Amino acid sequence: MTAPAKQKPKEKKKLSSAEKALKQSRARAMRNKSIRSGTKTAISKARAAIASGNAQQSLAAAKEAFSAIAKARSKGVLHRRAAARKESRLAKLAAKLAAG
Question: CA-CA distance, 69 to 80, in Å (whole number)?
Fold first, then answer.
């Protein structure tokens, strides 16, 4: 006697609602990634400007970074406390430059 042939498990058909949810999830992920990336870029530019010692340039870069952080927080990409922490750390660096 030969062993019975293995049957492939039947694949479940995706529900249209599941397909839509997946599509929405991917769209949100792309949008969030873009916002998160822009925020990180703004923060790193502000840090670089502060490190260079140019007060005028660092003030403008810090202002842009604060704006990007606030926008990410309002859209739900950043948690409110994480956003506050990032703003606080950046403000502390900027204050050191302003102080001397």
Answer: 10
Taking the model in full, what pTM does it have? 0.77
Q: What single-letter amino acid sits at 43? A: I
Inter-helix orientation angle 55-74/16-52, to 10°: 160
Pick from 28, 10, 8: nearest CA to 20? 28
Residue given tokens 């995706």 in the structure block: 14
65 and 90 Cβ atoms separated by less than 8 Å = yes
Question: What amino acid occupies position 55?
Answer: A
Which pLDDT tens digits describe the chain residue by residue (100 residues)? 566 667 777 777 778 898 999 999 999 999 999 999 999 999 999 999 999 988 889 999 999 999 999 999 999 999 999 999 999 999 999 998 888 6
What the chain holds in terms of domains, given with CATH numbers, is 29-99 (1.20.58.110)
The conformational region for residue 54 under phi > 0 = left, psi -120 to 50 = alpha, else beta, is beta
